[in-house]
């Protein structure tokens, strides 16, 4: 039996994947549409028919990254049963990401830093992504029985770890953030005896 041919990747997806790799490695402003065209293997005419401008391509890349982040974090958290450990699994997920070859920090922070002042659409989407992350944390905090005010505190630890890991070129920031998160969680539990009691009965 002859092998089945590999399904052809949608041209728009090829362009987004190529742009994502280039933007993340070199920065958005340093990459031209010609660079994306060459990497994706499409004509310039085809590229502009799919994405009329660079901002529309940047937004498509950010949408891809948002889906990857949300799905990856959800899978990492859902593999853990104990609510407190589910919160800490967020930082274990960060540690794995930080250790990847080519890690250059958060793509949304990078995009906001480059284009936020000149592209309201990119700035708004970066803010939307960060709000979504806080919403994920708020849901985990509520499941663990803590006050929702703990969520933004844990989010700041995660955001700071991303920036620190990118600048230092080391995944150690995830471990530091995890230990700080444990301290915040323990303090929150000590302020609410009901939460502590429920944890002790698990």
From TrEMBL:
Gene3D superfamilies on file: Tetracycline Repressor, domain 2 (1.10.357.10)
Keywords: DNA-binding, Transcription, Transcription regulation
Residues in HTH tetR-type domain copies: 9-69
Highest taxon above the source species: Bacteria
Pfam family, one: TetR_C_13
Alphabetical list of SUPFAM superfamilies matching this protein: Homeodomain-like, Tetracyclin repressor-like, C-terminal domain
DNA-binding region location: 32-51
Protein name (record): TetR/AcrR family transcriptional regulator
Organism: Nocardioides astragali
Taxonomy of the source species: Bacteria, Bacillati, Actinomycetota, Actinomycetes, Propionibacteriales
């Amino acid at each position: 039996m002859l092998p089945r041919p590999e399904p052809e990747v949608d041209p728009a997806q090829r362009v987004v994947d190529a742009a994502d790799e280039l933007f993340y490695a070199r920065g958005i402003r340093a990459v031209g549409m010609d660079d994306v065209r060459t990497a994706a293997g499409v004509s310039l005419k085809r590229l502009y028919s799919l994405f009329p401008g660079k901002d529309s391509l940047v937004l498509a890349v950010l949408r891809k990254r948002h889906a990857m982040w949300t799905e990856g974090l959800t899978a990492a958290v859902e593999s853990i049963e104990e609510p407190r450990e589910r919160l800490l699994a967020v930082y274990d997920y960060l540690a794995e990401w930080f250790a990847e070859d080519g890690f250059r920090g958060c793509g949304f922070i990078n995009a906001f830093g480059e284009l936020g002042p000149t592209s309201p659409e990119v700035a708004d989407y970066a803010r939307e992504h960060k709000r979504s992350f806080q919403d994920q944390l708020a849901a985990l905090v509520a499941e663990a029985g803590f006050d929702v005010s703990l969520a933004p505190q844990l989010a700041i630890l995660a955001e700071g770890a991303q920036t620190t890991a990118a600048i230092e070129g080391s995944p150690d920031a995830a471990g530091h953030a995890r230990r700080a998160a444990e301290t915040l969680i323990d303090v929150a539990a000590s302020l609410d005896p009901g939460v502590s009691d429920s944890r002790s009965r698990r």
